[in-house]
Specification:
- The structure holds 2 protein chains of 2 kinds.
- Helices cover 65% and strands 6% of the residues of chain A.
- Chain A has helices at residues 4-20, 22-42, 61-72, 87-92, 106-111, 127-151, 173-204, 206-211, 217-245, 255-280, 283-300, 313-319, 323-336, 345-365, and strands at 50-56, 76-80, 98-102, 118-122.
- Chain B folds into 2 domains: 1-78 and 154-242, Rossmann fold (3-Layer(aba) Sandwich); 85-153, no CATH class.
- Chain B has helices at 45-52, 94-104, 109-123, 138-150, 168-183, 195-199, 218-224, 233-237; strands at residues 5-16, 19-29, 34-38, 60-67, 70-72, 79-82, 156-160, 187-192, 203-208, 211-216.
- In chain B, the strands form 2 sheets. In chain B, strands 6-7-8-3-9-10 form a 6-stranded mixed β-sheet, with helices on both faces. A 4-stranded antiparallel β-sheet of chain B has the order 2-1-4-5.
- Chain B starts with a strand and ends in a 5-residue tail after the last helix.
- The interface between A and B is medium-sized, with 26 and 36 residues.
Chain lengths: 372, 242
């Protein structure tokens, strides 16, 4: 039977170690804030003042109005051209990112209730930039269409352009990156902190004394997790407040659901750190492992940088192994859309299964003897 | 006197990292007395102590514990184990260590207070109760380690080279401490490289290169093998062929 007294004693001892060690406190409380603030400001996927060449073949009131709308937003620097000569080499020399050609019958088509035809030539060499640029232009043409519909007394929504953005309507990349960054930072810090704790006991020899007492491995595992869990939840709260106040990210869903998700995710990450510590038994190796396990999947397989939908199917399935992928989905969905638990059932199940699995694994792998 | 544990080692062999650390060891550690496991470095002393503490498993052979007339299957509840390097937590005070081990050994408050008072008194560590272990002297550090172990009032006390790296005065104090507790119903098994300490044991078990050379009362052994000093046993017997 598990002894609550032993768990409490180990948790209390660990709490004392943490509070008396400034290094641990900095890693646990200050580093997540610095990382989120720093990367939150640095990682900016918004492109501004993108150079665009426009050739207006229609030269009507409507086409000029469209160009004015483009000019009025801060994304583009417009350069009107009269000829397409040398346009390819201009793109090659990075003198322009896109060329927009307004067709001759642009206004007539709109008046008839059809789409006003615009041809867009994009520099596809930077596909991320091209995708974002395309997104911006779709958003702008959509608002232009609204204006035209109003002008011509057309019944809206007779949509002339079908593109529409859900959730992040302002296309503000911060709204997307900050909840993602919190996933990475929270997970990484949790794994690193606990990866040291058991290895430290092995390295300084205190584990031998500990193992000669009637304490059970599961009591050590749980006792070690508890103080770090509290510490991590505190840093999550601070990151959450920063997301709302500094980055002005709206939080659309239930804070209660988000808290439950954090509890499960952090427990799994802490248990993973304990598992690394139990297996390596050396602090240096544990930290290296923790960085590899905590950092790489967070960036590569969580959907933070590379879209999971665009991965080959084998990798798509592979990403399912990493809790970061599921928590990323939970975090972004809860931040940016009004949703309920039902919608997030699969990600929730995934992080629950992961947490239970890692706790069991850490307990099984925990050596209660001195065998090499 | 309270019952305490006796240990029966039967044909125990242990291989560690391709080296035979113990080779077919058979011996008995009777209750109520102080046993000394002696031998040079690499003789297998720590391996044997760890096997008795159930921190290592014998590859071959068996270890049996008896308390009075009863067989004991789980030794850790009766055990006090003092490793060669009892690394305590440098940022915790003496009192915090005792409170930590109190919870691990599941000792109630009344017993804890009574035992703490007694242990502080005999170790003279009362003025240092709130001092962190990182600022204790070598002797005080070992005494605190022993206090943590003795807090459980173990029926079997295992000491792995407890006086190594300790000044002569602290060594004397540590031994007084062990003798005092051994009198009140405790089997003590300690390994040592110091032959003067071995001679103070009631029974010694002489190991060399994983083999048990001889076991018995130190004076009887010296008489039987016509030895002037107990360490001469290694010259007289060497390593028996197996």
């Amino acid at each position: 039977m598990i002894s609550k007294t032993s768990i409490k004693a180990i948790a209390l001892k660990e709490y004392k170690h943490i509070t008396r060690d400034p290094f641990t406190m900095i890693i646990a409380l200050v580093m997540p804030l610095i990382l989120v603030l720093f990367f939150g400001f640095v990682v900016d996927l918004d492109y501004k003042h993108i150079k665009i060449d426009i050739q207006d073949n229609n030269n009507s009131q409507m086409s000029r109005r469209f160009i004015d709308i483009l000019k009025s937003c801060q994304y583009f620097t417009i350069n009107k051209v009269n000829s397409m000569l040398g346009i390819k080499s201009k793109i090659n020399r990075n003198n322009t990112s896109a060329i927009l050609i307004i067709e001759e019958n642009f206004d007539r088509n709109i008046v008839k209730g059809n789409s006003g035809k615009i041809q867009l030539l994009l520099d596809g060499s930077d596909n991320a930039k091209a995708g974002i640029l395309n997104g911006y232009l779709n958003g702008i043409t959509s608002s232009a269409n609204k204006i035209y519909s109003k002008q011509l007394n057309m019944q809206y929504p007779k949509e002339l352009i079908r593109t529409r953005f859900l959730f992040n309507t302002e296309l503000n990349s911060k709204w997307f990156t900050v909840p993602g960054l919190s996933t990475i930072v929270i997970g990484l810090i949790a794994i690193i902190l606990t990866s040291l704790t058991i290895a430290k006991e092995w390295e300084n020899g205190s584990m031998e004394l500990l193992l000669s007492t009637p304490v059970k491995s599961i009591e050590i595992v749980i006792g070690k997790i508890i103080p770090y869990f509290i510490l991590n939840m505190f840093s999550i709260l601070m990151i959450f407040i920063i997301s709302l106040l500094v980055f002005k990210i709206p939080f659309e869903s239930s804070f209660f659901i988000y808290s439950i998700a954090c509890v499960i995710y952090v427990t799994g990450a802490l248990a993973l750190g304990i598992f690394i510590s139990v297996v390596t038994r050396q602090q240096q190796a544990a930290v290296q492992f923790a960085f590899a396990v905590g950092l790489l999947p967070s960036f590569l397989f969580s959907g933070f940088i590379f879209s999971i939908e665009n991965m080959p199917s084998l990798f798509r399935y592979f990403t399912a192994l990493f809790p970061q992928r599921w928590f990323m989905e939970i975090s972004r969905t809860l931040f940016l859309s009004k949703t309920n638990l039902k919608v997030l059932l699969v990600p929730f199940l995934a992080i629950i299964i992961f947490a239970i699995f890692v706790i069991i694994l850490a307990n099984i792998k925990f050596k209660t003897d001195m065998e090499p | 006197m309270d019952n305490c544990i006796s240990v029966n080692i039967n044909k125990v062999t242990k291989v560690l990292l391709n080296t035979k650390a113990l080779n077919n060891i058979t011996t008995t550690f009777e209750e109520h007395i102080i046993h000394g496991i002696i031998g040079p470095n690499g003789a297998g002393k720590t391996t044997l102590i760890r096997i008795i503490a159930s921190l290592l498993k014998a590859d071959k052979g068996s270890v049996n514990y008896t308390l009075g007339n009863k067989k004991v299957s789980y030794i850790k509840s009766y055990l006090g184990y003092f490793p060669q390097e009892p690394s305590l937590y440098p940022d915790l005070s003496c009192q915090e260590h005792l409170e930590f081990f109190k919870a691990l050994y599941r000792i109630n408050d009344n017993d804890f207070n009574e035992r703490c008072e007694q242990l502080y008194k005999v170790t003279n560590l009362t003025p240092f109760a709130t001092r962190k272990t990182s600022s204790l002297s070598g002797g005080m550090y070992k005494k605190l380690g022993l206090m943590c172990v003795l807090l459980n009032r173990p029926k079997l006390l295992l000491l792995d080279e407890p006086t190594i790296g300790v000044d002569p005065l602290s060594r004397r104090e540590l031994w007084d401490l062990v003798y005092n507790f051994a009198k009140n119903g405790m089997t003590v098994i300690m390994s040592t490289s110091y032959m003067d300490e071995a001679e103070q044991s009631n029974k010694i078990h002489v190991l060399n290169e994983g083999n048990l050379l001889v076991s018995g009362n130190p004076l009887e052994i010296m008489e039987r093998y016509h030895l002037n000093k107990i360490e001469d046993i290694f010259l007289t017997m060497g390593t028996p062929k197996t």
